[in-house]
Amino acid sequence: MQERDEYDEDWEPADGDVDDAPPYWFNGQHLPPHARAMGLTHHVPDGALLDFAGSLDSSKRGHKITAWAMLVVFGLPVVFAIMRLVSAIVPG
């Protein structure tokens, strides 16, 4: 182990400056507070989707394309279910 010298005080945080929160780029940092209150984390599929969607940045073109693709992927089954329901109710 190396000996400490006079410049080593910069390597340790001050007593009151310890921040135990993980950095914002770690998984699970973009979940809304109400999702955390329900017990969702980035380890479960629904929480992982929320975390991924929350990390998208609207100022980036690729993120906008990803958001629209997610909207289509998750929205089309709902549209098809409504179309099936309407075709079952309305004869013809």
Rg from C-alpha positions?
24 Å
Strand content: under 5%
Oligomer: single chain
Structural class: mainly alpha
Average pLDDT works out at 81
Describe the structure.
With 92 residues, the chain is mainly alpha-helical. The protein has helices at 33-37, 45-54, 61-89. The longest helix is centred in the C-terminal third of the chain and has 29 residues, at 61-89. The termini are far apart.
What is the gist of this entry?
With 92 residues, the chain is mainly alpha-helical.
Q: Which terms would index this structure?
A:
single chain, elongated, mainly alpha, 92 residues
Indicate the topology.
Elements: H1 33-37, H2 45-54, H3 61-89
